[in-house]
Design brief:
The protein contains 18 helices and 27 strands. It is of the alpha/beta class. The strands form 6 sheets. Strands 2-6-5-3-4-9-8 form a 7-stranded mixed beta sheet, sandwiched between helices. Strands 20-21-24-25-26-19-27 form a 7-stranded antiparallel beta sheet. It binds alpha-D-glucose-1-phosphate-6-vanadate and cobalt (II) ion.
């Protein structure tokens, strides 16, 4: 019988999960008892851990291996019957969701700070998913935070580490640790949704080349198995396929700024036909064609419009959902299909109820997140396979498909301007100032544009009727242009102000403008309304996507 130790501790005041779990600098997590406190607060909050099955894995970033061993010992002390751990401690976020669902686990812990940089000076994170595979809803994360404020002890098994490199079971106190193949369940699910034969025919035709950039993060092993082995894409299709604790020194964020090598490969003469990348934990995706970037808001609209071409969705979509700041491109497709389109706050946790109730099939966020009812997380490789399936069936280029889409539905020019690492008071001041201006804004017009809505977005979940307030300052114009302001809930340094800009254009002669040029008027209105320069001292955004 292995002994369970009870350790005295004192609370940390800052263990409030944000948009996607608790995210802090590695050095914060390395403080004695920091991780243990949070995990114990979580286990105390869960109603009953006795005999339950937990899923555990992470994106392989620095501290993943240490944290996993601590959590295993604490899970054993909490009475869990079995923990399914990804081999070598790896599980992408969507794969963890798939494993929770397939093995009917009571929940799962995912260790990741997603697209944030890793390494000893980078970020670490921990998030909890519930038994449907969805990120824990606010009522759970709020309860964990409350518990963390009064925690005075935690329980841990006194035992040496368990090896995670080989598949199979190990007894761990009264608990069983089962090391599972991180890729197997997930790859099987992808094979059920997409026409692998057709995609394989495209990839081996000699007429089509693609690159997938795993950014030295968790999708490497998944992408090698699925693209290079199962779909027989040329060796070397997967770039940066080996997961590294510091992501090779890069920033595993699949966007135009951080996936530069991939973008260059697609933009050169005779570049590849298709390019894609995923983030640290594999839930984000970027889609590129030769010489074209597909904005994530357009991507979810195009997937919706073409879902009937894909086996897993041929039967039709019950509805779609997008986060509030995501462009309204998908709304137009939903209207055409005669299905509802729901608008939720930022963060995947808000889609879970809609998917469970089967009132939506596809979901998307402007932040490079796309997914469906196959799991309860956004899913990077799923989006790439969805695009490949469409390309294989339509036999057109990415650019042709996007341009035809715009010609049919019009184009929602869209961009996000991020001001990172702002002084926290200055950032809060910007939002408070905007909030105070709302009533007075509702009837104003700017350069002939009438404001039709000015509010602080609040959401009532249509399924459980829970209410989430203060989800972003939303300013809409009569021509359906929009400006949204909100503060990031995933950063670890100061505050990040996000300004989301959107403008609709249906004039065929104006569908191919430069995005920043097309949005120039709105950008000027946004920075003026928010008094960005006066309040933050910043002349320009840190990053534009
Ligand atoms: C950001 C994105 C949001 C996304 C979240 C988690 O949140 O805006 O759309 O769901 O990251 O994505 P925020 O609060 O920083 O704007 V992931 O891939 O970082 O887990
Ligand atoms: Co992510």
């Amino acid at each position: 019988m292995t002994a369970i130790r009870t350790v005295s501790t004192t609370p940390f005041p800052d263990q409030q999960p944000g948009t996607s779990g608790l995210r802090k600098k590695v050095s914060v997590f390395q403080q004695p008892h920091y991780l243990e406190n949070f995990v114990q607060a979580l286990f105390d909050t869960l109603e009953d851990c006795q005999g339950q099955t937990l899923v555990l894995g992470g994106d392989g970033r620095y501290y993943n291996d240490v944290a996993i061993q601590t959590i295993l010992k604490m899970a054993a002390a909490a009475g869990f019957g079995r923990v399914l751990v990804g081999q070598n401690g790896l599980l992408s976020t969507p794969a963890a969701s798939a494993v929770i669902r397939r093995h009917k686990a009571s929940g799962g812990i995912i260790l990741s700070a997603s697209h944030n940089p890793g390494g000893p000076n980078g970020d670490f994170g921990i998030k909890y998913n519930i038994n449907n595979g969805s990120p824990a809803p606010e009522k759970v994360t709020d309860a964990v935070f409350e518990r963390s404020k009064s925690i005075d002890k935690y329980h841990i098994l006194a035992r040496e580490a368990v090896a995670l490199d080989r598949l199979g079971e190990t007894r761990f106190g009264a608990m069983t640790v089962e090391v599972v193949d991180a890729v197997e369940d997930y790859a099987q699910l992808m094979g059920e949704l997409f026409d692998f034969n057709r995609i394989r025919a495209l990839l081996t035709s000699g007429q089509f080349t693609m690159h997938f950039d795993a950014m030295h993060a968790v999708t490497g092993p998944y992408a090698c198995t699925i693209f290079e082995e199962q779909l027989e894409a040329a060796a070397g299709t997967v770039m940066n396929g080996q997961p590294l604790p510091d992501f090779g020194g890069g920033h595993p964020d699949p966007n135009l700024a951080h996936a530069k090598d991939l973008v260059a490969l697609l933009n050169q003469d005779n570049g590849a036909d298709f390019g894609a990348a995923a983030d640290g934990d594999g839930d984000r995706n970027m889609i590129l064609g030769r010489g074209i970037f597909v904005s994530p808001s357009d991507s979810i609209a195009i997937l919706t419009a073409n879902a009937h071409l894909v086996p897993g969705y041929r039967a039709g979509l019950t509805g779609v959902a997008r986060s509030m700041p995501t462009s309204q491109a998908v709304d137009r497709v939903a209207a055409q299909l005669g299905i509802p389109c729901y608008e939720t706050p930022t963060g995947w946790k808000f889609f879970g109820n809609l998917l469970d109730a089967n009132i939506v099939t596809l979901c998307g966020e402007e932040s490079f997140g796309t997914g469906s009812n196959h799991v309860r997380e956004k899913d990077g490789l799923w989006a790439v396979l969805f695009w490949l399936n469409i390309l294989a069936v339509r036999g057109q280029s990415v650019a042709e498909i996007v341009h035809e889409h715009w010609a049919k539905y019009g184009r929602n020019y869209y961009s996000r301007h991020d001001y990172e690492a702002l002084d926290i008071d200055a950032a809060n001041g910007i939002i408070e100032h905007l909030r105070a201006s709302l009533t007075q804004l509702s009837n104003r017009s700017f350069g002939g544009r009438q404001i039709s809505i000015a509010d602080d977005f609040a959401y009532t979940d249509p399924v459980d009727h829970s209410v989430s307030q203060h989800q972003g300052i939303r300013i809409g114009f009569s021509d359906s242009a929009r400006i949204i302001f909100r503060l990031s809930g995933t950063g670890t340094e100061g505050a990040t102000l996000r300004i989301y800009l959107e403008q609709y254009e249906s004039d065929l002669a104006k569908l191919h403008l430069d995005t920043q040029d097309a949005l120039a008027d709105l950008i000027a209105i946004a920075t003026q309304l928010a008094e960005v320069k006066q309040r933050s001292g910043r002349e320009a955004p840190t990053i534009i996507t």
